[in-house]
Amino acid sequence: MKILVDSDILVGAFRKDDTNNFKAISLLKLILSNHQGYIINLVLMESATVLSHRIGMDAVKLFLKRFPELELTIIDMDHNLEEKAWEIFTKQTKKGCSYVDCANLASIAHYHLDKIASFDGFYPKHLVFLDGN
């Protein structure tokens, strides 16, 4: 399967004190050993920003140094993908919607990805990869 990885998985795996640390690490190991992993460049940026706020810049530097070990294919947002993400984003009705989450959905559709590894309740259940299915 082709699985997109969301920032909560990356942050959860990197932060030892994160409540999802064990689950995030397990999911990443499963993805890396049995599937093709993908990430959009915005998620990488978002993950670094979250780590900066929660831990500090030394953690960000270590995260960026170790990130290539994951061997995730990085999807760069081009103009067309950005437009699709804006279309999805502007159709949302709930307060506090994330543009990056909508960009993930646009990427899943555009690149025909199978699932997204995320703890975020925003994504449709049929797309979420949390237990190997």
From TrEMBL:
Any Pfam family the entry gives: PIN
Segments forming domain PIN: 3-120
InterPro entries noted in UniProt: PIN-like_dom_sf, PIN_dom, VapC20-like
Single GO BP term: rRNA catabolic process
Top-level taxon of origin: Bacteria
Gene Ontology molecular function: any one: RNA endonuclease activity
PANTHER family: 23S RRNA-SPECIFIC ENDONUCLEASE VAPC20
Listed name of the protein: PIN domain-containing protein
